[in-house]
């Protein structure tokens, strides 16, 4: 739902999203009940409620519009034969009030949280603050989290902050294309797939912007919270240098992105030994597919409730320091 790039077509991206999701529903409902609850990952920022509210509304509109289109057409073949004018007339995004006896419930989860679930559930990430960057095509979802025990040797991410940065791989491609006349985005994408190092300067500029965002929205508020609670701020800052930053998403597999981010000096990428994908039948998954699959797999794990969160300002409230020892 990004408006950061010029969309040259007369049909809005939101309408295209609804049509694509309709196609997906025809395949899903071949195997699952129509009333099965749905979890959808969306870009969200804790510090930008207005942005998050818009994303939630867009997700609801798109999903329930897709459901209405699915129910309107008798089969996938009928849907694919439909003329554009007919689809436009049917795609109205009218308010939909689900009847949960026959309609699926919809739980929206931050994409950053969905990325975290499959890599934290078996405790393979050591306890302590960790940064995750989910680099997609149109956005980069950033989360600061630690790992908490749940039950039966399972673990959950405890999120301290989430940011959705409105740029991703496509922005890096666009920066290169803008400086190389006659080179299209598709040309850049092809170049990147074969020689990602050619775009290293643009990747560094992209990551520098992320570092500034992290400094403003995560690091400085976290240090302020630590100081207010009497924690040893200098020691805590030094401890963060030892902590990992995990890269996932379509961009997370490329080594050109694997750099230290702010004070997080240990870059990690999604790999087989980091994920728990026991129920995946196809074991011949490439590293790129594995990185993208981590989000989808996280969404496939039923949550039943909102993610566990400890806001930055409350991270250090458990520390009880006597005044003379501050």
Report on this structure.
42% of the residues lie in helices and 14% in strands. The protein is globular. It has a five-stranded mixed beta sheet, with helices on both faces. It has a two-stranded parallel sheet with strand order 1-2. The protein has helices at residues 13-28, 49-72, 76-81, 84-90, 111-120, 169-179, 185-194, 200-228, 233-241, 287-300, and strands spanning 38-42, 106-110, 130-135, 140-149, 155-165, 244-248, 266-269. It contains ten helices and seven strands. It starts with 12 loop residues before the first helix and ends in a 26-residue tail after the last helix. Strand 4 (140-149) and strand 5 (155-165) form a beta hairpin.
Summarize the structure.
With about 325 residues, this protein is an alpha/beta fold. The chain contains 10 helices and 7 strands. The strands form 2 sheets. A 5-stranded mixed β-sheet has the order 5-4-3-6-7, sandwiched between helices.
Topology summary:
Elements (H helix, E strand, L loop, with lengths): L12 H16 L9 E5 L6 H24 L3 H6 L2 H7 L15 E5 H10 L9 E6 L4 E10 L5 E11 L3 H11 L5 H10 L5 H29 L4 H9 L2 E5 L17 E4 L17 H14 L26
Parallel strand pairs: 1-2, 3-6, 6-7
Antiparallel strand pairs: 3-4, 4-5
Helix pairs in contact: 1-2, 5-10, 6-7
Number of helices: 10
What percent strand?
Answer: 5-15%
Number of strands: 7
- What is the approximate shape? globular
Q: How much helix is in the residues?
A: 40-55%
Low-pLDDT ranges = 320-326
| Overall pLDDT score | 82
Radius of gyration: 21 Å
Structural class: alpha/beta
Helix-strand pattern, N to C? HEHHHEHEEEHHHHEEH
